[in-house]
Amino acid sequence: MGRYDVRVAECGERIEVMRVHDCERLRELVADAEGLRVWVAGKLAVDRRVCGEPLIGHGPRVAPTLKLREQHDIPAGAARLARILNEAGARVTIAGIVGDDLPGAGLLAQLESEGIDTSGVVISEAVATEMSMTVVSACEPERCVCEGITVCECGDEM
Percent of the chain at pLDDT above 70? Predict the structure, then answer.
């Protein structure tokens, strides 16, 4: 998780800035957010986790091929903060920029399905939605396989 600069202010009061480095501390800080109207602005991103089984005898030796088993897209950046506030009961509107692409569309659909207002998000053809990917082996979930990998969505015939 990245660092969040959380700015808290009541109408007409001084803004207090807290730097938070973990989700649990952030959840503690926003535990009383029930019913509050909150705007979250910042970088919108997607963390993709891909899990598969290595296919022996397929692809070059230096770049293993995985048979895709699971794929999860997890909102990241400001979208992660918006979800935490939403879970705490706040009425959240998010603002930021996503690309006119599949990761951006998926991110917006997920946030909207959770009840987060995305009316402050700009969809732009000039940018790509930021996305990081972690590829793990289903046989060794603690092992991250990232460089030069081929992921195939193949049937059981392989």
Answer: 66
Contacts of 129 (CB under 8 A, 6+ apart): 44, 45, 46, 98, 99, 101, 103, 104, 107
DSSP, res 42 = S
CA separation for the pair 143, 135 (Å, rounded): 9
DSSP conformational letter for 144: B
Q: How far apart are CA 112 and CA 119, in angstroms?
A: 10
pTM of the full structure: 0.70
Q: CB–CB of 116/84 below 8 Å?
A: no
Interval 60-70: pLDDT, tens = 555 567 778 88
